[in-house]
Write a structure and sequence with these properties.
Blueprint: H1 2-9, E1 14-17, H2 25-36, E2 40-44, E3 62-68, E4 86-89, E5 93-96, E6 102-105, H3 108-123, H4 136-146, H5 162-170
Parallel strand pairs: 1-2, 2-3, 3-4
Antiparallel strand pairs: 5-6
Helix pairs in contact: 1-2, 3-4, 4-5
Length: 171
C-alpha cells in the first residue's frame, strides 16, 4: 500500500503491481488514492487458476489483468472471473534476465506488464474529455472498449489491443 501511495504522490501515471496479497482497507485506500491522483493501478490477477478475487487486482479502481495463452485462450494458471477487466499475453513471454540473457516467463505478471505498457502509451495521447483534470478514466475506457473480445468467461473486456486503443483515442 505504501509503494502505491508513494508512486501516486510522485506523479506516476501507471503503477504496475504484480503480486497477490490479502485484501486490506489500507491497500484498497492506496489504490483509490492512486486513482484520485490520476494514476492507474494495473494489477496481475494471480496464477492459481482460481475464480476467487485476488488483491489488489480485484479492487474496483484497479485494472485486473488475466493471462492469455498462445491461442488467445485463457492461460491455464491464470486467475479469472467477473472481477477481471482485461487479458493480455502471458504465456511463454521472453523477458530479459538479470544476467543479460533471456528467460521465458508465464503468468499474469507479464500480462500486467503488457497492459501497463499500453496504458503508458495511451497516457501520451489521451485528452481530458470530461474536464476532470485527469485522463486515467479515458485511458481505462480506451483499454477496455478497444479490447478484442474473447469467447472465454472471466477474461473481462477481452484481449488488450494497443493499435485499436490508440485509434480510438485519436478518432
Amino acid at each position: 500500500a505504501n509503494a502505491i501511495r508513494w508512486a501516486a504522490d510522485r506523479g506516476a501515471d501507471v503503477i504496475n503491481v504484480s503480486l497477490e496479497v490479502a485484501a486490506s482497507p489500507e491497500l484498497e485506500a492506496a489504490v483509490r488514492h492512486a486513482w484520485s491522483k490520476g494514476a492507474i493501478v494495473v494489477a496481475a490477477a494471480g496464477n492459481n487458476g482460481s475464480i476467487e478475487p485476488a488483491f489488489p487486482a480485484a479492487y474496483e479502481e484497479a485494472i485486473a489483468v488475466a493471462a492469455s495463452n498462445e491461442q488467445d485462450g485463457l492461460a491455464v494458471l491464470s486467475n479469472h472471473g467477473d472481477w477481471i477487466d482485461i487479458a493480455a499475453p502471458g504465456f511463454r513471454i521472453y523477458a530479459e534476465a538479470l544476467d543479460g540473457n533471456y528467460d521465458v516467463e508465464t503468468g499474469t505478471s507479464p500480462a500486467a506488464a503488457h497492459v501497463s505498457g499500453v496504458a503508458a502509451l495511451l497516457y501520451g495521447i489521451a485528452e481530458d474529455s470530461n474536464d476532470n483534470g485527469m485522463v486515467n478514466d479515458e485511458v481505462r475506457e480506451a483499454l477496455e472498449t478497444s479490447a478484442r473480445p474473447l469467447d472465454i468467461a472471466g477474461t473481462g473486456s477481452g484481449l488488450v489491443d494497443a493499435c485499436a486503443a490508440v485509434q480510438l483515442l485519436l478518432a
